[in-house]
Amino acid sequence: MKQENKLYRHAIVSHIVVIGALIGFLTAISAIILYVLADPTFSFLTHWISHLGVGPNGSDIVFNGGMIYSGIISWIYSLYLAEYLHKKGAFKLLILVSLGCGIILGVGLLMLGIFPLELSFGIHNVAAGLFFYGGMFSCIVYGITVYLTPGISKLQSIIGFLIASIFLAYIIINTLPLHVSFKMAAEWAVFFAIPTWILSQGILVLRSNYTERFESKK
């Protein structure tokens, strides 16, 4: 009974993470739609992500609120993943590093929502750095941890490495003498990579929990 209750609690948190990631994703889409309604010239090739934080037609409020919300969800997600990895017997050091990267990612998202570009350029850039590097190393460290841990689907590891490759591609693109539109597109790819990663991992962990609950009832 105790084991079943624990699996049930994990399933509830998994649902919270999945739904939370979906809501965070939808707030970004909503902010883009509001921006486009006021300024049809908006596109992923002409605007940076930060433009949404100071955008017209209420897009700034929706976007910044979504960033704050996503930061909180990121913390819940990171703590949940740490507990999940601990349950699976992963290396404690890797769990702690993965958790730390997730917390940094959450801080970056929270600060991006609180300090939009026009409010404080310096703090906004620091927040963007925390988001970027926190997200990239979260994917890498979590991918490595999953790969080294028996009993966890390696698909989780593969997805983590694929998302991390988007971050690395962004770094490479920004070092090349390319037109700014390529750099803008790469930044948007990174932006949408994080909720995609959180959502995919949440779904896979949720599936794992349901499988464990099913097996425990046999």
Describe the structure.
This protein has one domain (2-216). The model has no long low-confidence stretch (mean pLDDT 87). It is globular. The chain is mainly α. The protein has helices at residues 2-38, 59-87, 92-114, 121-148, 154-175, 180-216. Helix 2 (59-87) runs antiparallel to helix 3. Helix content is 81%, strand content 0%. It is built from 6 helices and no strands.
What is the gist of this entry?
The protein is an all-alpha fold and 218 residues long.
Secondary structure category: mainly alpha
Radius of gyration: 18 Å
- Biggest sheet descriptor: none
What is the H-and-E element order? HHHHHH
How many angstroms separate the termini? Answer: 13 Å
Domains, number: 1
Mean pLDDT: 87
Task: Please bin the fraction of helical residues.
Answer: over 70%
Number of helices: 6
Number of DSSP strands?
0
Please state roughly what percent of the residues sit in beta strands, choosing from under 5%, 5-15%, 15-25%, 25-35%, 35-45% or over 45%. under 5%
